[in-house]
């Protein structure tokens, strides 16, 4: 396997790279992964307690969520039937298991509910990581500033990482620390800062299509640092951990994430991808995707940042 270093992991600051879902709270990863679930009402009640669901146990909402939960457990069995080799992805019950597939797409891959801000998280994650790699201080920068001020995008109603980078390059806006412009999960009025204010600005960025050229993308990651990418994350609703090798298409680009590294040492080389759904999801907030085959469309739309 070419592409430079056999193992690379350039991890961005993660404590602010979370998009907390509205009304959904996580439970311990250990509980989720070690418990064998089925679709029974008793087990569903246990799921409700673990994830702090607040709807009544004898109403229409309970029945609807229970039905989605039963559908999810059947889906998990199908997805796991492909996991026949070591390190394969594992699918099972997590914080999304009482959502229908349509609800999951709407809440986490669209912008009609909650705050569709992951395009901004991926851009800010790239900036703060590249800055640290270049010798600067690893500092959490303001995602809210990008949400409020990037006039090329639509705030919580959705946006493009590439449009945000274009805005940053054109205006030379300096991103300020998260502490000065905290995340509110809703679009607000843009707060302007004087040119003399300390911050991080974008000198330039590049965008590439590396489909069919993932070894070149590996080299690009080594040379440029973490990469903002757009993926098809529909199948990630049920992901618990391991390396995704199947059923992750490149048909629809619907979610922005950050490729922070890769591992080419073992039998299955994989991308290390930082997601924005919280540390209780996946591999403590990360997803591993097999290198080769453009799984999830990971190589279709790739951006690197220059400061």
UniProtKB/TrEMBL annotation:
> Which keywords describe this protein according to UniProt?
Disulfide bond, Signal
> A Pfam family in this protein?
Peptidase_C1
Judging by the UniProt lineage, the source's domain of life is Eukaryota
Q: Which InterPro entries match?
A: Papain-like_cys_pep_sf (IPR038765), Pept_asp_AS (IPR025661), Pept_his_AS (IPR025660), Peptidase_C1A (IPR013128), Peptidase_C1A_C (IPR000668), Peptidase_C1A_papain-like (IPR039417), Prot_inhib_I29 (IPR013201)
Q: What Gene3D superfamilies does this protein map onto?
A: 1.10.287.2250, Cysteine proteinases (3.90.70.10)
Sequence similarity: Belongs to the peptidase C1 family.
Indicate what this protein is called per its UniProt record.
Answer: Cathepsin O
């Amino acid at each position: 396997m070419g592409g430079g270093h056999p193992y690379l992991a350039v991890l961005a600051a993660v404590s602010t790279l979370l998009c907390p879902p509205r009304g959904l709270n996580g439970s311990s990863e250990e509980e989720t992964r070690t418990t064998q679930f089925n679709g029974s009402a008793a087990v569903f009640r246990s799921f409700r307690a673990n994830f702090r669901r607040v709807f009544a146990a004898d109403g229409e909402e309970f029945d609807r969520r229970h039905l989605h939960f039963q559908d999810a457990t059947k889906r998990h069995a199908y997805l796991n039937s492909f996991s026949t080799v070591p390190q394969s992805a594992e699918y099972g019950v997590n914080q999304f298991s009482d959502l229908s597939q349509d609800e999951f797409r709407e809440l986490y891959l669209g912008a009609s509910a909650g705050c569709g801000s992951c395009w901004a998280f991926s851009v800010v994650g790239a900036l703060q990581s590249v800055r640290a790699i270049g010798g600067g201080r690893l500092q959490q920068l303001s995602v809210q500033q990008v949400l409020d001020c990037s006039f090329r995008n639509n705030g919580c109603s959705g946006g493009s990482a590439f449009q945000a980078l274009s805005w940053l390059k054109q205006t030379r806006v300096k991103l300020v620390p998260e502490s000065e412009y905290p995340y509110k999960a809703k679009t607000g009025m843009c707060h302007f800062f004087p040119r003399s204010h300390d911050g991080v600005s974008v000198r330039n960025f590049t965008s590439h299509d590396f489909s069919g050229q993932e070894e070149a993308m590996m080299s690009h990651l080594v040379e440029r640092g973490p990469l903002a990418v757009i993926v098809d994350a529909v199948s990630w609703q049920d992901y618990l951990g391991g390396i995704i090798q199947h059923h992750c298409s490149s048909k629809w680009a619907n979610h922005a994430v950050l490729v922070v590294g890769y591992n080419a040492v073992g039998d299955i080389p994989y991308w290390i991808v930082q997601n924005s759904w919280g540390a209780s999801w996946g591999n403590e907030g990360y997803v591993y995707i097999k290198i080769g085959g453009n799984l999830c469309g990971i190589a279709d739309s790739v951006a690197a940042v220059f400061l």
